[in-house]
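Hello again, I could really use a second opinion on something today. I've dropped the whole record in just underneath, so have a look.
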Amino acid sequence: MDNHNVEKAIVTTVNRAASSKIYTNNNLKEKNENSEEDLVKRAFENLRKLMPKDQLDHQDVIDLSNRAPERFYKFFWFNPKINSEQEERSYNILENHFKKGFCGVKVHSGIHLVKIPRDIMKLASFIQGYNKRFPLFIHFTPKFSAFGGISSKDIAQLAKSFPELPIIVGHAGLAMEFAIDFGLSLRQFKNIYFETSCSIPYALLTLVKTVGHQRLLFGSDAPVTNPLKLEIDKILSLPISNDQKQDIFYNNINSLI
């Protein structure tokens, strides 16, 4: 962070076991015997098997933020695909983390095969009821062989149902087509924000033109995907003013949380 002049960061945990074993040696050996679609399905099945059926441990986030509390905002990675027996305990865990200073929630639509808004109605209601300034960050996943994906219509339904809940669409510029669709379909919902990591620059420029730069939030997804410098350079390369870039890098998210 210091090397790249990053003053503050939003942090959440990662499932290291799942992230490192999504592709197994058996998958690679079977490549000639299975279709690419089967390999994709197998990879995500492996990932889901390695994900705890309960909630992830966030002690690593707490330990990190304790090193510089003024620099870190803690988000809880919540698994909404829980059965009725786990539900009360899961929401007690979430509330306890809010009391420990966590100020937002992330859901991963792909790993947990989350249907929006159906599977997160209770979660969204819980967050909005607890603190209207706590954002819900949704990892955007497009349609692929093992999952129906998330559409702009899905996000719009959620925003309509919870107009006071800040909703952040993660990786919103993953492709130009998605960014155009999101920008045109969701610009009327002022509680929706668009996070920039893993996006292509032209898609981000499209969002600037459709929803306005004030609703773009810089994100890096580091160290999981791209190097931090690459994500920073994407914003610097946009043909917009330095003031607009500063808003995307810092001011917008600082005002939101």
Q: What stands out?
A: The chain has one domain: 2-256. Residues 183 and 207 are 5 Å apart (CA to CA). The first strand starts at residue 9 and ends at 11.
